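To close the section, here is one more complete example, presented without commentary so you can practise reading it yourself. The ligand is S-adenosylmethionine.
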Amino acid sequence: MTTPTPPLAELLDRGAAFLLRHGVPPDEARAQTELLAGEVLRLPPLTLTLHRAERPSPEAVAALRAMLLRRARGEPLQYILGRWPFHDVTLRVTPAALIPRPETEGLVERVLAHPRWRDARVVTDVGTGTGAIALALAHAAARQGLGKTFLAIDLSPAALALARQNAADLRLGVTFLQADGLSSLPPASCDLIVSNPPYIPSAQVDALPAHIRDHEPRLALDGGPDGLDVIRQLILDATLALRPGGCLFLEIGEDQGLAVRRLLDRAGYTAVAVARDLAGHDRYAEGALP
Ligand SMILES: C[S@@+](CC[C@H](N)C(=O)[O-])C[C@H]1O[C@@H](n2cnc3c(N)ncnc32)[C@H](O)[C@@H]1O
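Output:
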């Protein structure tokens, strides 16, 4: 005779306690357990409470246990779930690319609110990773009935393969290109260039929390000795790739506002601005070509 599996309520309590013992913060352990249980049971996490008394199948219990073990070993929740919402789209996420962050949704919002958004014909996302920025913008353009061409560039073939899959899932038309920054674009070919480039100084990458350092691609994080290697190059190359009046939008590190403002000023951009994220940190920089 097989012993019955515990009721869902007990599994959730045990799962949260297990994650807590393995260093997941108290305010996240319960929510993460519920997200994993929701994934296994194919139920929206908010409805789990309606099923508290039910006993999941032994297969479901084993699947949840395996996921909790991966999480306890430090793997990010998003990679275990395999998909994650970003702005108005849901993306596949794998260790091939950075997990899209809420701050980057703020970058998308800045582009959508910009006066040049509506009439821009060619929009380029540099360092596309999962495709997050290009796909969120392409989704918004489709909803607004705006015809635009979207180009998404990355140096990493693995990230591009994932981004292509996301574009196919979402049925959004984006052209993907493997290249080093803007180096292979014809002059004056873009109206808007958007990028969340790697911007963490190399020496700080090793000091990042293990769930980031050991699981997300170093190419997505490491911005060179002062974190500005890719940003510096983008600011210069965008002066060629943008059409007159075109705009560059960047996500930056919280202590890079002053340096990036200077780089934009020196490269001849107008309407240079640095803006803060919801936490009050300098996070976005932008400029327009005269
Ligand atoms: C911080 S991640 C951003 C990913 C995605 N745009 C997002 O916001 O979630 C930076 C991305 O830039 C790519 N990358 C790094 N250096 C690059 C370069 N020189 N040219 C093109 N892409 C680059 C990395 O592979 C990575 O996908």
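Once you have examined the tokens, check your reading against these statements. The chain has a mean pLDDT of 96. The longest helix spans residues 26-41.
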